[in-house]
Structures are given as C-alpha cells and as structure tokens.
C-alpha cells in the first residue's frame, strides 16, 4: 500500500517514513501543502497522513483541494491543537480520522490499517481467499493453518491482491501502489515476485490462486471460487 505523508517538521516526517516503511508501506513524503498536493494529484495513493499545521497551504486547504480533485483515498490528520473545533473542521473538510500529537506509533499504525480496511470494504484484518489467510494487522500469511514466510515486497503484493480479491489488477496498478515514484516502472520485478508468491502459497500447483490474464494483469481467486 502506498501512503502520502505531509509533515513540515523534518524529524517527525522522517520518523513517520521510517516507521511506515518498516511495516511494508511505500511512502511518499512532502514537507508542505503544495508538494503534498502535487504528489496526491499525480500518484495513486492508498492513504494520506496530513499535518494540519502546515506552512503556506494549510492541512485543511490541502484536504479540500484533494477532495475537489476527487481523490477519495482515506485521510488521517495529525494535529498539535487541542481545540475540538480544529478536529471537527478537519473532518468536515474531508478527512476520515485524526490523531493528536504526541501519539504512539502503535496507535498510528492501527488507525491506518483500519482506514485501509474500511476503504476496501473489509471490517476485519483477517482476509481470506484461495485457501490463503492474511492478517493485515500482524502482516502474517497462512496456508491451511501453516504460516508462510514472505519477503517485504512479496507481502505487499499479496496483500494488495487479497484486498482486491476477485478483481483484475494490472501490473501498472500493482507497481504504482506498491512502490514510490522512483521505482523502475519498466522492470520485470513484479512478474518475478508474483512467480515467487505462487510457489510459496501453491507449492504443488494444484490450486492456482493467482491468475494471469494476458495483457490485463493478475487476479487472486476469491474464497470459495474455483480457479
């Protein structure tokens, strides 16, 4: 999943980047509202974390502009302000949730995970498809009750596919949501990773949980659906 972080305080911005990347998220970071708007407009984000107290274009203005552009990804606002009016204004501008500084990393990650699940239409962190169970909160993967070890990049791809189980996901869509803007879009890394995932979740090749639709992309078979 790809997350936009807009925070003007350099130390906190880098802490957020590091913490989110350590959990397998791809992160695009901006130090002000103008750059945040550019990234949110030009790249397909899955969620944004936006500080309200930005210089120049405020966090509220940024949220309003993103919503005007019909960017409907979830937005979590960060605020150092205690006034409930500021939190209400942020939510009424189009944000989905808020955290007051200082906050614990665990709470930030839990709220992000919950927002991503709700946006995809899931109420639980336990997602199942094609005999595979993914716990998006713990970032664990099981096949028939046995835990499977995946690399960070493999997990990102499988999580994205299972969140969108039953839907065709193009290679471009996978690349844009799994990696930041500096990733080599012409590489065959995604194809290689999908091949490795197949071998791990379907070692004997009997289930064929991930379909390849030539010229269209990949599709993870939904639970109870024949491959």
The CATH architecture of the largest domain is: 3-Layer(aba) Sandwich
Count of domain modules: 2
pLDDT under 50 segments (min length 5)? Answer: none
Work out the number of β strands: 11
* Radius of gyration using CA atoms only: 18 Å
Placed side by side, the strands forming the largest sheet appear as 2-1-3-4-5
Derived structural class: alpha/beta
- Proportion of residues in β-strands: 15-25%
CATH class of the largest domain: Alpha Beta
Q: How far is the first residue's CA from the last residue's CA?
A: 25 Å
How many helical elements?
Answer: 8
Q: Outline the biggest β-sheet.
A: 5 strands, parallel
CATH homologous superfamily label of the largest domain: Response regulator
Order of helices and strands: EHEHEHEHEHEEEEHHHEE
Give a description of the structure.
The structure is a single chain. This protein is α/β, with parallel strands linked by helices. The chain contains 8 helices and 11 strands. It has 2 domains: 118 residues, Rossmann fold (3-Layer(aba) Sandwich); 95 residues, Arc Repressor Mutant, subunit A, CATH 1.10.10.10. The protein has a 5-stranded parallel sheet, with helices on both faces. Helix 2 packs parallel to helix 3 and helix 6 packs across helix 8. It is elongated.
Topology of helices and strands:
Elements: E1 2-6, H1 10-22, E2 26-30, H2 33-42, E3 47-51, H3 59-68, E4 75-79, H4 84-92, E5 97-100, H5 105-119, E6 126-129, E7 132-135, E8 140-143, E9 146-148, H6 152-163, H7 171-178, H8 189-201, E10 210-213, E11 217-220
Parallel strand pairs: 1-2, 1-3, 3-4, 4-5
Antiparallel strand pairs: 6-7, 7-8, 8-9, 10-11
Helix pairs in contact: 2-3, 6-8
């Amino acid at each position: 999943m790809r997350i936009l972080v807009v925070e003007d305080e350099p130390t906190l911005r880098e802490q957020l980047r590091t913490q989110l990347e350590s959990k397998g998220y791809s992160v695009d970071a901006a130090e002000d509202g103008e750059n945040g708007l550019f990234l949110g407009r030009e790249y397909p984000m899955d969620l944004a974390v936006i500080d309200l107290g930005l210089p120049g274009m405020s966090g509220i203005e940024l949220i309003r502009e993103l919503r005007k552009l019909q960017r409907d990804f979830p937005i979590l606002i960060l605020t150092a302000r205690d006034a409930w009016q500021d939190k209400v204004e942020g939510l009424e501008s189009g944000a989905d949730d808020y955290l007051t500084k200082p906050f614990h990393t665990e709470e930030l990650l839990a709220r992000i995970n919950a927002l991503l699940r709700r946006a995809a239409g899931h109420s639980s962190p336990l997602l199942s498809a094609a005999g595979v169970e993914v716990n998006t909160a713990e970032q664990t993967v099981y096949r028939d009750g046995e835990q499977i070890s995946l690399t960070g990049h493999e997990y990102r791809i499988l999580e994205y596919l299972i969140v969108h189980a039953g839907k065709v996901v193009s290679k471009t869509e996978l690349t844009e949501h799994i990696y930041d803007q500096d990733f080599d879009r012409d590489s065959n890394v995604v194809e290689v990773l999908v091949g490795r995932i197949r071998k791990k979740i379907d070692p004997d090749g009997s289930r064929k949980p991930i379909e390849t639709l030539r010229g269209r992309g990949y599709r993870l078979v939904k639970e109870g659906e024949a491959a």
